[in-house]
Amino acid sequence: MGAQVTGAEREFREFFAAEYGRLRGLGFLLTGDWAQAEELAQDALVRTYRAWPRVRRHDRPGAYVRKVLLNRHRSLLRRAAVEARHLAGRRFEEACPADLGTDGLVLWAAVRRLPARQRAVLVLRYHEDLPEAEVARLLGLPLGTVKSLAHRGLARLRGELGSPAMEETRGTGR
Amino acid sequence: MIEDRLRETFDRVATGRPDETGAFDRFQRRRRADRSRRLAGATALVLVVAVASAVVVPRLRSDTPERRLQVTGAAGPQRWLAGPLVADAPLQGFQVQVPAGWEASATWKGIELRPISPVLRQHLNGPVQLVTSILEQFYNPAPNAWKDGTYEDDPDLSGPLMPRPEGDQSRGTFPGDRGWFRTDLPERRWRTTHWHISWPYRCQPGVRCPALLGLRTLKVVYQVDGEGAAQVDGLAERLLRRARPIANAVRGQPQAPRPDCVEGRSMVLRRDTDDSLDYPGLSTVAHFWWWARTTANLVPCAVRGPLGVELLDESGRRLDVRGNGLTVTSVADLPEARIAPLRSGRMELRLKWFNWCHGGPTYMRWIDTAVPDPWPAVPITAPRCIDRSKPSRLMVDSVFR
Question: Measuring CA to CA, which of A78, A116, B116, B197 is 20 to 30 A from A168?
């Protein structure tokens, strides 16, 4: 029994080392704040640890912890004050990575102005490379809503960037 | 492509993170604090349960020989009542006896049961659910229930309506010639069972009743391991054999008041605009529409609204459009509502906006109470200017139910 517990602990340490950075990155893309990202990642891992005897048998324990993180993020957003800070792009200056380049900075600023659900959908689609059905499952939204949020999110980013090439794409893509 | 630029930016942003040193130590401290908190909570809970067992439960049992569990579909904290008791679920159209040794709790779509014995509880992965569902003709134990003359004919009904049920399939009849259909899907330790009997939904007299509703079933769903299987299978069979139809499962019976449909739970309400289908600047009408699919588990609910849109300028002020902010209430009852020629349980509300001659950026915002948070305003392509002397108008185009 003792050996089994040690094995599970060791597995969890490996899991932690493999997932932590990625979770924190996901948390940052969702919140725009490294402190909140760390909080989300730590919280998700503590909750996953509680269920580890069950989760370690999953095919994809990484998907489980990601779902926990997204649920925690959603709970945070329900608090109006947090969302207001989030939407206002809090601490944008200190949160900006230095090596994004001008285009990247403009795009990242536009992403940060998106409503929380649109932003979450785009992060899961284009950072995590998840199919729309999986995004819908993780966010607990209907598939049609996810499609609509992605469409509107991209349209809004195009609109905010406003480059002629983008306008042309928008005009002919209909 | 904006998608590629987005991918690249996300990658750079997410990898430009500050130092992670000490993350696992912080995690360990946090985990220990979490464990202490949970232990304290569990101790308090044990005390509460002990007091309740000693005082409250015996009193409940002695005062109410036939206690009842009412399933109303309302949200609220989960509350477990020990059997024996009678559970009434008028929205799902069933009444069942919960036997001694089990406790039950109401959910929005039916009831959940769990054994009082902690030993048996270890052999179940989650509660046993008794809910309504839908099963297409090929699998349905009463595939012709909708042909009794009280439903609308639907020649398309024999096609596939849903994904193929997973697992080993079996069929049989209970005493009294009531047919059943069952699937068992073994997966590692647990076996997932869905066990159905026919439970047709009866519309109120005078209401068009889509044929699909005749294919409603009452089903028990559970995940059990090998050691608990005999006891839980026995409970499931008992529930299905003794379930009594009430309310919308009995022709001519009055139906229970319907709760409001809740987005993402009892229904999926899709909102969309048609403007993106037109070429910019050529659009003569901007359409805004809602489309509600049949309710999950065929649990009845009412799409009460208000549903509408408001058209805004860049600063969030309403545009000068006649009917701007227009809303519609009492849109439809689900799962009866329908739009021909589609199958049952769908409603559609469509609004249209035309003749916009003032230019400038235009935005729209959905007005609906089915979601907890207000919708954000989003850019919208305005319709073409047709006649400057006439007002711009927003109006109801159609309501299908």
Answer: A116
